[in-house]
Every structure is written in structure tokens, then in C-alpha cells.
Predict the 3D structure of the following.
Amino acid sequence: MKRILNFLLLGLCLSSCLGGKYMANYALRPPVHGIADIERTRAKADSLLPGSTAWYDDLKAQGVMRDTFIVGHNDYRVHAVYAPAKHPCKAQGTALIIHGYGDNHLVFLYLARMYRDQLNYNILMPDLQYHGYSEGDSIQMGWLDRIDVLNWINVAYGLYPNDFMVLHGVSMGGATVMMTSGEHLPDYVRCFVEDCGYNSVRGQFAKDLKETFPFIPKDLLNSASIVTKRRHGWYFSEADCSKALAKCEKPMLFIHGDADDFVPFDNLQKNYDAKKRGYKEMWVAEGAVHANSYAKHPEEYTRRVSNFLKTVHNMIEDGSIYDK
């Protein structure tokens, strides 16, 4: 009987290990990614704001939109594009725009156009590791991405050395922004905009697991987390926006569509409540599904972001930005 029990235990362990490996690969190493996925994302960019890729291609042809590469986390070569404000001499600051899961900088050209052409900000848009033209062995869900973002902050300041920078991310990019907000940042990083970011990787994966594989036990998340730690250097539990937001003192605008069922709407309140110090705003985009708040309400989205940035500028001028 003891031998049978040991055999069953071994079988369960092997099953858990194999299941953890499968789940880690499924979530963090989708087969179609990077350069192979560029054409899909070009089409997605135009679906969110018609004419986006033509605008982008024109700026590229003029030499206004340029590419740059740096060595990122784990020595992978990572990519970004950048462009000056439409009226460089009157630039209001610099916007670092961060894309979501499975996408790349092209998808968020609507934000690039908003910041550059309407709000007159310089822009820099990185491809996170395993996306776009960046190298990488896996999706990092914002946690290790924050290390590369810290480097891109320095690059952006080197290109456009002004005293106002905003970090704006959508979906996984929103989570990346929140995780970055808890780091020690230069004074010129003034504020953040997070749009429909998840509160924690573990919480998001648990939700996805329940919907995609309803008969698989939740304990497999633990196995997948251990596999991720061994392969990629982080546990799911580390990637928690609440922990980072608790350390954030700089202003932040939180955006979420109330029809979002991919990153559930209740993540908005969790994230908002987790930021205990410093100025914050919340906007609920009525009727917007996941990562669709701009497409649903382009004028209001632009107005909300613009007013938030103006508020932060005013707070800097009168010194109230330093009030806790």
C-alpha cells in the first residue's frame, strides 16, 4: 500500500510539474509574437484610429519618427520608436507610451497621435521584451518590464531633456506603469496614466485559468509560478500593482471601461484604493470593453488626459505636487 501511495504521489507531482510547464508556456511564450506579428498589429492600429499607420509611415519617411535600440534586462536587445512634439519649441513634455500583452508599439499609435499632434508632447514608445522588434525569451507581464522602462526613461530624457515626463500604459502596459511607479524615479517623471491594468498577475491568471481551463485545479498556478521563477526569474506573486502603488507619491490617472470583462472592472477600484499617497483621479469609460476606452470615447479620453496633465503642471508651478 505504501508503494502504491508513493507511486500516486509521484504521479501527482509529475502531473503538477508538467501542468505548470504547460501553463507557463501557454501564458508567457505564445508561438506567434514579435516581428512575425507586425502585420496583424498594423491592422489593429488602424481599427482603433483609422489612418494611424499611414501617419506613422509618413513620419518614418520624413525621418521624424525614428528607431532606437538599447540593451535591456537579461542582455536582450530592446527596441523603441521616438518622435519630437509637433511643435518642438513649445513641447509640453515627453510621453513614454507602453503597450499591452501580445501587442507592440504600433497598436498604440492612437496615443502617439494624441500626445504628439494634439497635446504637443515628445513621444517614445518601446516594444516590451518578446514583442515587436525587441528580443526576449518570454512575456514578463510588466514585472521585469519595469526594469527596461527605467532604462527607457533615461533614454527619453537624453533625447528630450525637459522637466516633465508622463508614463502612459494600457492593459499590461497599464500594469507596467503601476509597477514602475513604485520605483525610485527621477524628479522629471511627474505623473502616470494607467488604462485598464490588472491589479496582480496572479489574480489575472487565476481569472483566465477559470475561464479557459475550468477543470484544471487552481493549484497549478503555484507550479506555473515556480516554473516561471526557475526559467525567467520571477514569481507571479511578485507582480502585484498594489504593492507598488502603496509606494507611489506622484499623481496618477486611473482609467477603466465599465464593460471590461477581460481585466474585470473591479480592478479599477482595487488599483485606485491601493494608491494611498499623492494626487489621483479616476475615470470610468462608460460602455467600453477592454482597452477600448479611447476608441469608444476619443474626445473625452483626450480631454480627460489633457486636463489631468494640466492639473499636474499647475501643481508643479504652485508647489502642491509635493503635498502628500
